[in-house]
Amino acid sequence: MSEHETIERESMEFDVLIVGAGPAGLSAAIRLRQLARAAGQDDFSVCVIEKGSEVGAHILSGAVMETRALDELLPDWQERGAPLNTPAGDDRFMLLTEKRALRLPTPPQMHNSGNYIVSLGNVCRWLAEQAEAIGVDVFPGFAAAEVLYQPDGAVKGVATGDMGIEKDGSRSANYVPGVELHARQTFFGEGCHGSLSKQVIQRFDLRADADPQTYGLGIKELWEIDPAKHEAGRVMHSIGWPLDSATYGGAWLYHLEDNLVSIGFVVGLDYRNPYLSPFQEMQRFKTHPTIRPLLEGGRRISYGARALVEGGLQSLPRTHFPGGVLIGDSAGFLNVPKIKGTHAAMKSGMVAAEAVFDALQADDSEHLNVASYGERLRDSWLWDELHRVRNIRPGFARFGLWGGLLHAAVDSYVFRGKAPWTLANHADHEQLDEKTRHKPIDYPKPDGKLTFDRLSSVQLSNTNHEENQPSHLQLKDDTVPVQINLARYDSPEQRYCPAGVYEIVEQNGVPALQINAQNCVHCKTCDIKDPTQNINWVTPQGGDGPNYPNM
């Protein structure tokens, strides 16, 4: 068979197609089927596709979960056996210096009474079971690689990626073409900076009235610690050391059940120093005198990283367009000061489900533009919640750590989230300084007990990519890494990637960028932070990537 021969793809038809089996997508699917059953329409078809090898394989979060949306979606979630096993208890907010830890008053948004410390991956696995039980088709291992459009420009659905493509683009003997999935409405719930979501945002100019989205990079390790040191339900958040006062970020430490501790570090991707390594900052954090004793004698059992949306209300794009909607972190529903997004993602999916279902009942024409989704969002508790905290994260970007804390206090306690102004956000990739304005950071070598290197960390993420496939990390211009990134910024991709994907090596006596795509944990940081936006992250073969256990 000629590699240029066109192969007709099989197609499947659904009422609603949902891309991404995260909290938003699964909640939307469950709500759609609830509405269909209540309306006596058991043939209303809902399909969820997920690029991970199983539901939850690519899910990573802290996570302390607020149950407000879950209470609305499945009020009997406790009787159903939802994996929310550890109520949040002792709650601390700390300011770290290099040697000390000062306890600060916990901001009102961060109070965790009634919340639960969870593995979000396990929560999503459970939500998938609830979705399947109510009639949703859930297909893991199907990576949505292409948006399909109708002749009039409306979204028609998606196509999954072809399998068995060689590195040179030719078809191997194991070639299997992708499948087209068509729907009356397509929900994009791919999570932060989704590869298809960014395409529809650009195609339909959904950011015309919004600020640029801003992001953070979260790096997480799961530890099993000495039982004598474990306090189930304990929650700690910190700011300050090891970051300087001009760089936004902080850490969390959550005690789950079974002597497990989730420890993580977030760095805002608007940082300016090209020599900063979020991974190394996380390793340094663990050496603090408050943190080291907790982990000593324990063992690290899992590792992962992902970007998270931080722009808030002013960076939300328009969420509806002909043939589809954006939900969850594909749009940007994260409450940054609260350090929680699961309840917000779930609520956005539920609101979208209600708006779309009602629209499809009222109008059986194709390619609907469900504007009522946006209207219902504005009438929901989610919009009010995000509106009240909209200025806190941009305040740190504008005023730094100390000014940001003061501004957040005034915004929260004086104006109570109703200040008569809204601070603007700016694109992260535009914030990086050139290397001449900073000195390299001398990070300590890992000791292999408390601190580690990136490659041994990636091994704990169970990341796997079929090596003989085209790289899913694409360069728009292959001269940029050396001529611009190396020359001006000393190749920051070597440091901001938490998985060691990017390296500068010598080829025939000259520097060149080497991309180790097989290491990629799908955090999307490179697509976000690259100063010239030269890196394009696309989906690899379905099922490839990390396989996170209990993350």
Task: Report a brief summary of the structure.
The protein is 25% helix and 24% strand.
Give a written overview of the molecule:
This protein is of the alpha+beta class and 551 residues long. It has a domain at 11-76 and 122-212 and 313-388: FAD/NAD(P)-binding domain, CATH 3.50.50.60. The chain is built from 14 helices and 24 strands. The strands form six sheets. Strands 1, 2, 8, 9, 10, 13, 19 and 20 form an eight-stranded mixed beta sheet that branches. A seven-stranded mixed beta sheet has the order 6-5-15-16-17-14-18. The protein has a three-stranded antiparallel beta sheet with strand order 3-7-4, with no helix packed on it. Helix 1 runs parallel beside helix 3 (120-133), helix 1 (23-38) runs parallel beside helix 7 and helix 7 crosses helix 8. The longest helix has 23 residues, at 392-414. 51% of the residues are buried. The mean pLDDT is 96.
